[in-house]
Design a protein that fits this description.
- The chain has a single domain, classed as Lipocalin (Beta Barrel), CATH 2.40.128.520.
- By secondary structure, it is α+β, with helices and mostly antiparallel strands.
- It is built from one helix and eight strands.
- The N terminus is likely disordered.
């Protein structure tokens, strides 16, 4: 009997985890940054999610077409992913949160243990 209760408990735990994974927010798509300077494609890349610059209006800020941000994130809530983001060009790692809406996205990246943070608004691009 004791083993049956453990098996049932593990089964419920596994199903709850599967339900959370199935309802994970999906930021995939083409997004335009709120300042109008960048258009990115967010898509799976291996076990991670990559944001790749498709278009840059002003490359004088050090951003170029093809630059990537590799995000290793997990669901934090029904509409938010949280984890780390790595910028291979600058060799920097950030903590990141991605809040996903139907037509909008808000990213929050932080460095220095969360002391310096920046929010960026995005809208779905055609």
């Amino acid at each position: 009997m004791k083993i049956s209760k453990i098996a049932v408990g593990l089964g419920i735990f596994w199903m709850a985890g599967a339900a959370i994974a199935a309802s994970s927010p999906d930021p995939s798509g083409i997004w335009m940054r709120g300042d109008g300077n960048a258009k990115v494609r967010i898509a799976p890349c291996g076990a991670d999610i990559c944001a790749t610059n498709l278009w840059i209006k002003d490359s004088g800020r050090g951003e170029n077409v093809g630059d990537k941000l590799v995000m290793t994130v997990k669901p934090k809530s029904a509409d938010t992913l949280s984890g780390k983001a790595f910028d291979p060009k600058r060799k920097l790692t950030y903590s990141i949160q991605v809040k996903v809406g139907k037509a909008s996205l808000v990213t929050r990246g932080c460095v220095v243990g969360g002391l310096v943070c920046k929010n960026v608004n995005w809208s779905r691009a055609d």
